[in-house]
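Hi there, hope your week has been kind to you so far. Do you reckon you could talk me through the fold, stretch by stretch? Thanks so much in advance, here it is.
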Amino acid sequence: MQKNEIKEKVIWPDGIIFSTVEKKEFWTFVEPHLEKVFVENELILRPLEICQDKSIEKIKRIRRQFKTVHEKYFLLRDDKNNLIGWSWGHQANHDSFYMVNSAILEKHRRKGYYTKILKQVIQNVINDGFDKIYSRHNIDNNSVIIPKLKCGFKISSLELSEYFGTLVHLTYFNTEVQNKVYSFRAGSLRPDEELKKLFKI
């Protein structure tokens, strides 16, 4: 993807607004919808729900220590400031950004909004300097997995999580060489001269 200027606010011709917001504003809009969107039909556990009592303070202490990690909060709203969808995530390491949570409210689904917000998140995060973006999804969540694959994400691993069940990891690689190495590792690409030089083969 080209490294364009970071767009903190984008307004589409239909009046839909994509914007980067502060954490407090984000949760003011999103929190009332979380249970309806994610918990209603799922068996989800949280770390504090299954840890032993003596571990609770340790988990809280660790969370406080990592509050300085780079976080990004995105909202999608209509021209009357009504919420359509959201996405948020944080820095995972020196080159990777973890998309923690994204959703479109039910009445706005199947209108292309998820793909729109996804493309803007990719551009924004890559312009921040990250070379990889990854996310985790239930393996049957095709309404999210398929749009992400179409936007260039690739299946990178499977995980059996005690909190969320069986998850597929999707990763977006920003550079051509990263994608070539991925395809080579996956067995679908013979090494060209660039790869031979990288792997010293």
